[in-house]
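Technical annex, item 7. During the second reporting period the consortium partners agreed on a shared format for inverse folding records so that results from different sites could be compared directly. Each record opens with the tokenized structure and is followed by the designed sequence. A conforming record, contributed by the partner at site C, is shown below for reference.
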């Protein structure tokens, strides 16, 4: 029996957690300070510019914002067409855009703030920046809307829907720059 009790068993090595393994592999670097791997290759600048999750959230919130803003704009086009039947469709599209814009900006601001850029506090400051971003585009929109509405009025099968199609053209044009404007200005941290 004494020979059995004297047999030495190999001592098992302690199991290291992931953070302990990191410390063992890279002493002095905390697990939270794990170095980021920089994207490389022909599209590296784009990958650095577009954090994956943020872009997907921006597209989802932006899609909702677009549908909301277009629905509000289309509703107001319809209302103003009924209220102002003697006025030109080219004027009605601009009036509808001007009236719907503050509401649409506020809804977009809340979506971007809470779901995309995750900023805290600074509601008034960030909202004013958001208004500035969209405000810069307003003169462009007031040209795009009547110009594209006029184009759609000239096409026989689209003239009935000209104000609505002009709204879609405008949304596509404005959405193309808004991600960068919001990221670099409205919600810059």
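Designed sequence (site C submission):
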């Amino acid at each position: 029996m004494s020979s059995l009790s004297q047999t030495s068993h190999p001592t098992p090595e302690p199991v290291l957690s992931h953070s302990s393994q990191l410390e063992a592999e890279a002493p002095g670097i905390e697990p939270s300070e794990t170095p980021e791997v920089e994207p490389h290759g022909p599209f590296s600048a784009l990958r650095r510019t577009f954090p994956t999750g943020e872009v997907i959230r921006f597209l989802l919130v932006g899609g909702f914002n677009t549908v909301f803003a277009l629905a509000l704009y289309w509703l107001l086009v319809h209302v103003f067409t009924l209220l102002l039947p003697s006025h030109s469709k080219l004027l009605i599209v601009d009036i509808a855009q001007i009236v719907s814009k503050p509401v649409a900006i506020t809804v977009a601001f809340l979506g971007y703030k809470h779901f995309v850029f995750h900023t805290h506090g600074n509601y008034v400051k960030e909202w004013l920046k958001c208004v500035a971003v969209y405000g810069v585009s307003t003169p462009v929109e007031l040209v795009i809307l009547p110009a594209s509405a006029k184009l759609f009025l000239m096409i026989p099968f689209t003239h009935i829907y000209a104000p609505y199609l002009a709204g879609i053209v405008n949304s596509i044009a404005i959405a193309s720059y808004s991600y960068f404007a919001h990221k670099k200005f409205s919600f810059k941290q």
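Residues 3 and 9 are 13 Å apart (CA to CA). The two ends are 71 Å apart (CA to CA). All partners now use this format for quarterly exchanges.
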